[in-house]
Here is the input.
Amino acid sequence: MLPPAPLQPLHLDWLRAARIDVAIQRLDLIDPLISGNKWFKLKHHLTAASQAGAEGLISLGGAHSNHLHALAAAGKRFGFATVGLVRGHPVQTPTMLDVQAFGMALHWLGYAGYRARHEPDFWAPWRERYPQLHPVPEGGGGLDGALGCAEIVSQARRQLADLGWEDYDGWWLACGTGTTLAGLVLAESDGHKVYGAMAVPEGHGVAQNIPAILGGSDDQRYELLDASRGGFAKADPELMVFIAECEQQSGIPLEPLYTGKALLALRQAVDARRFAAGSRLIFVHTGGLQGKTAFVAGLGGR
Here is the structure.
């Protein structure tokens, strides 16, 4: 069991000037290795695996996958086997070196092989090869992943009084698959809207994944915004300068692929006066800081 994620005031000049209060939920601080929203997405999958009598988990991701990193770290920490099915061809990235050190076995699928992950018979040969392992969707997605993320809401609510808050107006977070956002929506029953800053282009299926989990397409409880800045795993000079300024002011580390993009999207929404003075938002730091090492080294990230 990992500790709850701290909820802290986010001190930034542009928020202060707009008279908007933001608390940042530091999922990056729950564990040095099993960090961020990936742990919450894994929790129900781990329970399902245990109930099925599985000896471990098998899942998919890219060569810089935060999900595979968290899964491999959890396997090492809690003593279960892990297998990663990886997009592309063998490459040594900090993430892949880590997951192998944690004991994860890797299979490189190439690009065509990875695109086949949505085919109905994709899992059949892997179930035959690893009958003792429980398959987990890419990124820890699906309903089980979302149900695990619902705990993010209860953890934040228990800490509101520490901030002097009685209530809040909504949530803001980065989206890669939409699973975490779906979990927040499932947990919310008091009209708090969830804003998802899509860090990936539209073709990555976020807009389709969320209603598939929630069971309906006409849902006013959340809103998606484009924060991809031209593509997945791309960061432009404006974004990097913004991140450096926010890190200096707040003392909170950020990464450019998800949390940094989401925070810049929030800055743009504030500048557009989307939120009135006095608004209170909870911003979710989804972790993924381990992937920043590869990005800074010029390797990209996933």
